[in-house]
Amino acid sequence: MAQRKNPLFDTATVLGKIIAFLGVSAVCGVLVAGLLVPAAAVTGSSASGSIQFFDTLPSELTVDPPGQVTKILAADNSQIASLYSENRTKVDLKNMSPFVKNAVIAIEDNRFYEHGGVDTTGILRALVSTAQGKKQGASTITQQYVNNVINESLVAEGKTDQVLLNGVNKGVGDKLREMKLAIALEKKMTKDQILEGYLNIVFFNSNAYGIEAASKYFFSTTAKDLTLPQAALLAGLVNNPSGYDPISNPKSAKVRRDLVLAAMLRYGKIDKAAYDAAVKTPVTTKVTQPRQGCAYASQAQYFCAYVLHTILNNPAYGATQEDRVKKVYSGGLTIKTTLDPRLQSPAQAQADAIAGSNPDKWGASLITVQPGTGKILSMAQNTRMLAGQSSFATTYNFNVDRKDANGNDLGGAGGFQPGSTMKPVTFSAWLKEGKALNTVVPAYNRVYPLDYPWKTTCQAVTGAFNDAEEYLGAAPTLQNNDEGYYRNMPVNYGLYNSINTATYASAAMLDDFCDIQRMADALKMHNGEGKDKLDMSTLSSLLGPYNVSPLTMASAFATFSAEGTYCEPMAVTSVTDAQGKALPAQTQNCQKDAISPDVAKGVNYVLQDVLKQGSGWQMPKVGAPAAAKTGTNNYNSQTWVVGYTKGLATAAYFGEALEDPSQRLGRDVTINGKFYPVVDGSQIAGVMWGQYMQQVAGLYNTSEFAEPPANLLSAPQPVQRDPVPQPTQSSTGGSNSTTPETTAPSSQPTTSTTANNNGKKKNG
Predict the structure, then answer these.
(1) In the prediction, which pLDDT does 445 show?
(2) Average pLDDT of 168-178?
(3) Can you give the residue ranges of every domain in the chain?
(4) What is the per-residue burial (b if ≥16 Cβ within 10 Å, else e) of 53-89?
(5) What angle do CA 394, 358, 618 make, to 5 degrees?
(6) How far apart are CA 67 and CA 326, in angstroms?
(7) Under CATH, which number does the domain 88-280 receive?
């Protein structure tokens, strides 16, 4: 027969369980007095071994701010996007409903304002309740706060496997450490500070950390505006977030909520009338799903990604990429940007509308920078980041260099062939040498053989245009887009009509071909990878064969508008952390006189004529002084207009954005219901640019451009080299068709039935 147990010490009895609990503590070397008389434990007034052990436990808790939501804001403080690893927004206790404060205290720790961090009365009550078969916790709000702070630190360090949960992996030693830290914390922080910290850190749902996020998620309100039933429900939720979830378990949530309300009534936090009304209120939710990340930005998804890349690649935000990601996604940063929603909205509308339903997935983009500051004011394209957001989804940013869009695994498209939008670089070199903008040049020249005597003081000029030397590596003889332009003509006329042969004739008359390279460098022109400057020593480079991003082009043309001042593009004006401390942001980085102000004035003077009587004359009128240049690649598959007013510089792009442009011709195509035999810069990109600038130009400076100095306006007698023998003109036109005009040079262009057409080769 089994020996009968002494009923006094039977662990099935209430007293037996109490003694068993205390006995286990003693066996573990833990002083019972350390639990029951915390003040003595802290002061070391007892000399027992147990208290000495208790004293060896850590008593300093580093309360780092818990992970908070980072916000990316536009220039007007409207929100672009939020970023977080835990959806949490800190809110002061004074901005929380009194209902939620009272509800949490009533259900979790009704003696909160009476104990010193560890409630001995609560511990004994919990033991008795447990002995009676009723599970009851004994942790105070202070202890729970300590536990949450410890767990938050573990999560921040990536040690999620060490997170401590009651009843799962928390041992006696862990519980004692928690108690010791709670006692110490009460000596450092006020009760209200502890309650505020607890309500901001506690877990409600995987979409809601802290009371503010929970209020937004479950009820689409703020912590300040929670009603009594809502506050009681959230207070009850923290005990078992999944079991009492009002969305998935509304019945259980109501039972728990009513239990909280009963506790509030019992402890005098509400009166009977309020209680009766609250328990009759059905459990209802109004969920606001959090949308975090640039893919869910309320505006300017791709600009958001560009900003994110800028921050994540700044060492000021952490020594490693991992550190910077943690800072951004948990630091509660406020990132204010240069984006102007007044421009972004019409830019996005134009980009979306220009290609229509777009089953062939042509790309369209618009980007605007502010001359004289470099601020990126808008960035739009006709795609979205996620499938289902539009018929054309891609993570690639059409507007920026490839290296400037790899934040969050996003990529830049790597730029596009700018075609004749590169011609102002050669023209700038012409003006830099002091040559008049209306000097007549031999635009009939189509042959530039391999041994052509280019004047150069740096690297040799490579390339040639000569059918007869194709077998030696020369390109075919140079051609324009239209007949009737192989003749003598003023340089400015050749530029605003985008005549290829005029560009090469002016290059051939330069005192130093290297001035073209110098101008491209001054305008900070580089390839779409974002790594290397453009090599302008090859003849083809004058017509834009290299991929260049729209942001690079807009910034270069902004230099003309700003009369020679180049400014690096900037997107971030200020960054503050969760405590309001300023962190490093971008600052304006402008180079005054990057190019001569007189050169810029000369370019402005001529590019205004592109819109008045040149290749862009049919584009929508801006309604303010404006200048621009059209551009098209050899395949009509990548087309541009880059233009500006005094206050805005905008690059508009339309064409093949993701694949090899040579594999898809922009010829005999139907786009947005309209058939195009060929697509050039003025037709689609130009319409997009013009309609957009009509809407937004007046928001910024629209004053007149200053005229260039007299020496650039008045041409001396043209000085021409002996012309290279040219091919014979054909009546049918074609790639080899033209002869030099025999008429005398004139400062005025000869009239032509095609004078207002693009007047350019396939890459015009």
Answers:
(1) 96
(2) 70
(3) 14-56, 88-280
(4) bbbebebebebebbbbbbbbbbbeeeebbbbbbbbbb
(5) 115
(6) 9
(7) 1.10.3810.10
